Amino acid sequence: MLGTFRGGIHPYYGKEFSKDCLIETMPAPQTVYIPLLQHAGKPCEPIVQVGDEVVRGQTIGKPVGNGAPIFASICGTVVAIESRPTATGRCQHIIINGNGKNDSIRLQPLDNPTPQEIDDRIAECGIVGMGGAGFPTASKLKPGGGIQRLIINGAECEPYITCDYRIMLEYTEKFIDGVRLMMRSCGANEGIIGVEDNKSDVIADLLAYVKEKNFTDIKVIGVATKYPQGSDKQLIYATTGLKIPKGVRSSSYGIAVNNVHTALDVYLAVKEGQPCYSRVMTVTGGGIANPKNLWVSSGTLYKDIIEYCGGINQNNPPVKIVNGGPMMGKTVMNEDCSCTKTTSCLLFLTKDQCSTATPTACISCASCAGVCPMHLMPMYIEECTLAGDYDGAEKYGANYCLECGCCAYVCPAHRQLVHSIRKAKSQLKAREKRNG
Amino acid sequence: MDDTLIISSSPHVSANNSTRKIMLDVIIAMIPAIIAATVIFGYLVLVNCVVCAAACYGFEMLYEVLFNKKRAKDCSANDFSSIVTGIMLALNLPTYVSIWGWNIKSNDAVVFSFDMILVCLLGSLFAIWIVKMLFGGIGKNFANPALAARIFLFLAFATAFKAVFATDTWGQNVTTGATWLMTDRLAPITKSDLIDMLLGTRGSVAVGETSMIALALGYIYLCVRKVIDWRLPAIVIVSTTLFCLVFDGLIENKLTGTALLYNMLAHVMSGGMVFGAIFMVTDYTTCPNTFWGKFIYAIGVGLITALIRIYGSYPEGVSFAILIMNIVTPLLDKYIVPRPFGYVKPKKKSPEAKKAEVK
Lengths: 436, 359
Prior knowledge:
The complex is a heterodimer of chains A (436) and B (359). With 436 residues, chain A is of the alpha/beta class. Chain A has two domains: 1-25 and 109-354, 3-Layer(aba) Sandwich (Rossmann fold), CATH 3.40.50; 367-431, no CATH class. Helices cover 28% and strands 20% of the residues of chain A. Chain A is globular. The relative contact order of chain A is 0.15. In chain B, helix 1 (19-41) runs parallel beside helix 3 (81-91) and helix 7 runs parallel beside helix 10. In chain B, a hairpin with a 2-residue loop joins strand 1 and strand 2 (109-113). The chains are: A alpha/beta (436), B mainly alpha (359).
């Protein structure tokens, strides 16, 4: 019996575009535009000046408070530090013009590190939650934090994205070693890797490797293929049966959830001393000529990635460029944004792949309530929000919403339910701030 | 290509679904019932269906253009929900009535009924304008429009509807009017009666509710297409049956053995209960939105139906039962709200904290 949760949807998965593309390394572009905000929290402060020569792997941004440092992803000269639009807003960018050299700064690899050394190294190398949230990993894996179980989110439930799948398939050993390093850091005595059962080849590979090495503390668990299986609360419930209450961190239950790519980065940081300045991302969708899974240096413009992937599909050009997956990703205005540590996917949706229908009246079919993984009543929240009744929206649990998009996906009237709930959430947050 | 990029809130994909597709599914699910009714009662059924569907569609369009100042192509009528209402209404009426005497007869059989057309138009107007559009259109109506219109017509033209006893237009000796519930509930039921009820050849007041087999096909279609929750009609039918079994079979008539079983089956297959359970109880707008809300709603329909059938002065109670529960629905929706996943009770502020806030 596969672990799962109540609610959720089975969207068109679209994985076939990039599922079988081997991970390639994209050559570093001539110029990179490195955003100083690549994690959840405050933007970093630049510690280089215009005109400085930098080497790949050199720290160029220092975290403010709980954050993660930012590194140069190519060798060259800092030509400007300026505010530019990102996929999610605006922030300062450090612009580096490459000099063609291929040097890089690496830290000393650690052979047999203590938990504290691993945690320090994770912080030093600027590793954040690579699934998209960008929460600094070091604070999640602090030694002595009482973590007993480390769950690795290999569900990859977002349609189209295949980077975690390729990593687990191609870097099985590094990935599992990364998981073990993370377990050692936080003191977990059990590592659970949750993988959706549509990736049966990955499950078989991981199981074979774990068995071969006799890692008895690592469990590979197949979970039902259903969106949003990779949401942390849903994944914890599916793999362990625990319900994490709202507002409580999963660490209070002795659980830490991390992404597949994060585990790989931990391995690279500890065993190869490589700071986090590039990542594997999926470039996919019907609107791109050659879908690929790529190692991309952070700060690479979308434009350069499009060019490397053979350009726009001229027969069927994209109408939406999405940073992230089709369910939770954000559309971008143009191709002048750059990639960050958390850009897991660049999706080029064509007209027939994305929904552009105009909303009609709610017919009160309650489909949205049926698929909500948080068991909310999205149509009530929307009704309250549209009427300006944010108390009502809160009462119906607006703040529980994951914004996974299941409700809006199934809505036969194409109501923009998630958008309304987001509005309610931001209004509630603003009000709370006002009232102290 | 920059000027062609769309910026929008996630999600960017959606299920290939729309209100119109759902309504088309419901229309398809009613086709077996329409065919069965046409075979049993004659072509007048088709005439009524077309008149009601066209009238409902037209009235909704007219209302929106006149009062909401919409262009015809933007009207909500285009989602076909009014056509569903129309067909449902036609299936809930007899083939013809005699009120003003404008029926064309040939060899004592009515071949065309202007009276019925007028009744259909009036019912459609009531359903769409009074019950649906005045309350805000699709998704906002407090009662099922077709059901409310049926009750309106049955009350307004009570004598005429009761008088519908005649051979049908194809000359078979089938009555639209008397069901087992109306006439001979005390008479013993035989196996052939039950088979007649199953096939629908026994007749009924409303043409659509007669053939159980046709209705079952529609039910299966709706469940397979996931338009309705299969549990809701099932709960209605089971609860009605059990309540009728207790009230009628055990308490009132003290039946035993086969007689009790036949009585129970006759209750299931007579009257509009099955049609109501499949097509009217499951109406999205007027049924509760949560499972437990639906559960109470369905049990309520079953109980009220049984009470009206057995203790009330009307032979048939489903339409009233559904109407009453339609009105209870907002209340059920207000009080039955599911708990979110990982629910935490909101903290109540202590009196001291409140005082501190005021200062």
